[in-house]
TrEMBL record:
<keyword id="KW-0813">Transport</keyword>
<keyword id="KW-0812">Transmembrane</keyword>
<protein>
    <submittedName>
        <fullName>Divalent metal cation transporter</fullName>
    </submittedName>
</protein>
<dbReference type="GO" id="GO:0005384">
    <property type="term" value="F:manganese ion transmembrane transporter activity"/>
</dbReference>
<keyword id="KW-1133">Transmembrane helix</keyword>
<keyword id="KW-0769">Symport</keyword>
<dbReference type="GO" id="GO:0034755">
    <property type="term" value="P:iron ion transmembrane transport"/>
</dbReference>
<dbReference type="GO" id="GO:0015086">
    <property type="term" value="F:cadmium ion transmembrane transporter activity"/>
</dbReference>
<dbReference type="GO" id="GO:0005886">
    <property type="term" value="C:plasma membrane"/>
</dbReference>
<dbReference type="Pfam" id="PF01566">
    <property type="entry name" value="Nramp"/>
</dbReference>
<keyword id="KW-0472">Membrane</keyword>
<dbReference type="InterPro" id="IPR001046">
    <property type="entry name" value="NRAMP_fam"/>
</dbReference>
<dbReference type="GO" id="GO:0015293">
    <property type="term" value="F:symporter activity"/>
</dbReference>
Length: 428
């Protein structure tokens, strides 16, 4: 400690460092939820309905946190991912159907995200969008396959800082904060098909099955990364510290996800809705923002699309690989070398390649996102039901079976998602 440094400030640094170390799987999971396709959904909500849907982001926060806490606890308590637990305790047909739907939805999501990232890079640099898509896909695959897990996990954690771009954009553009406050405190509901469909889209964008698989598997990765750590069923004395960390990490991570979604919706409402500009994709939102919010806001928004895509791609491809590996009993871990877990890394590579190929089919990004939402909604509900049954089973979770507030919150999130999934199929 130097002469000008107080003891309090010296103690503050390790405390702050410890606080940051406690953030991991939950933060990355929450940040990855704000992918380019999610940005497109939030932008559409703000552009179409102004501040009227900001309440939805407050509603999704506790629901999303509850189900992600359930996912994280299953991984940490059992020491196995969701697919491995499903294989052990439930019928094979349910596991196979779930994993196939998950992988299909993830590949479509990867394609939509790559398309949005390529379009955003084209806005900034011009040039061939298709080439950008290939390069971005290749970079993501190479990082996942060849960068050591501990370094890669830190990279993902710090990449989450790109989300601050959307807070900055909201501070740059003029926002009528009094009107925002009124919309939150006294929300105005519409019983129109367009309004309800958008609410469903926001809920479906926020609560996605790939996030369940990713966070449970990342808890297992964290377990393996520290030799002294064991699954909580085998080492119950580690439970108090680990469950506190999971709670803190998940509440913060899902808070980041929902705050950023809130600011994206807010920005679109304060600019695009005010000028009666409708958008279909995240790149459309960035393009439309320039004449209203200025060049700096436009650049920040476009950079945010690229950064969040680089964060979301490994979560989408990785969750598909964890699910497939758990289904077929393949060795799986981002900490393993390529030669030790070839099937696991092959699924990651094939998911990225599949996404790139789909972008070259010149698909309609809006229809792709719609069908991805349909598949996500159909897949999420049975997975959430199975997760809740697993998490509440003493046979699987031992004395760590969930009860009380978390159980109620998880089932409430499951019911909300079931209603959203049914709403996707309502005509009009």
């Amino acid at each position: 400690m130097n002469d000008n440094e107080s003891p309090d400030s010296a103690q503050h640094r390790p405390r702050a460092a410890n606080w940051l170390r406690r953030l991991g799987p939950g933060l990355v999971t929450g940040a990855a939820d704000d992918d380019p396709s999610g940005i497109g959904t939030y932008s559409q909500a703000g552009a179409q309905f102004g501040f009227e849907l900001l309440w939805a982001l407050l509603l999704t926060y506790p629901l999303m946190t509850a189900i992600q806490l359930v996912s994280a606890r299953i991984g940490r308590v059992t020491g196995k991912g969701l697919a491995s637990n499903m294989r052990t305790h439930y019928p094979c047909w349910l596991l196979y159907a779930t994993v196939v739907l998950l992988i299909v939805a993830n590949v479509i999501n990867i394609a939509a995200d790559l398309s949005a990232m390529g379009a955003a890079l084209n806005l900034l640099l011009h040039g061939p969008q298709e080439l950008y898509v290939v390069c971005l896909g290749a970079v993501s695959a190479v990082l996942q396959i060849f960068v050591p897990y501990d370094r890669y996990a830190r990279l993902l954690k710090w990449t989450a800082l790109i989300l601050l771009a959307y807070v900055a954009v909201a501070l740059i553009v003029p926002v009528p904060w009094r009107e925002v406050g009124r919309a939150i405190v006294r929300p105005h509901f519409q019983w129109s098909a367009a309004y309800l469909t958008t609410v469903i889209a926001v809920l479906g964008t926020t609560i996605s099955p790939y996030l369940f698989f990713w966070q449970a598997s990342q808890e297992v990765e964290e377990l393996r990364a520290v030799p002294s750590q064991r699954s909580l069923r085998r080492a119950p004395h580690q439970a108090p510290a680990q469950l506190r960390r999971i709670n803190f990490d998940t509440w913060v991570g899902m808070g980041v996800s929902n705050v950023i979604g809130f600011f994206i919706t807010l920005t679109a409402a304060a600019t695009l809705h005010l000028h009666h500009i409708d958008v279909k994709t995240s790149a459309d939102a960035a393009r439309a923002l320039e004449p209203i919010g200025g060049h700096f806001a436009y650049v920040l928004f476009a950079l945010g699309i690229i950064g969040t895509g680089l964060l979301a791609l490994p979560v989408l491809a990785g969750s598909a690989a964890y699910a497939a590996a758990g289904t077929f009993r393949w060795r799986n871990s981002l900490a393993l070398k390529l030669g030790v877990a070839p099937e696991f890394y092959a699924v990651i590579a094939l998911a990225i390649i599949g996404g790139v190929v789909v972008t070259f089919l010149h698909f309609d990004p809006i229809r792709a996102l719609y069908w991805s939402a349909v598949i996500n909604g159909v897949t999420a509900v049975p997975i959430m039901v199975v997760m809740m049954l697993m998490a509440g089973s003493r046979r699987i979770m031992g004395k760590f079976a969930i009860t009380g507030t978390l159980a109620w919150g998880g089932w409430l999130a499951t019911c909300a998602m079931a209603i959203a999934a049914m709403g996707v199929f309502v005509p009009g």
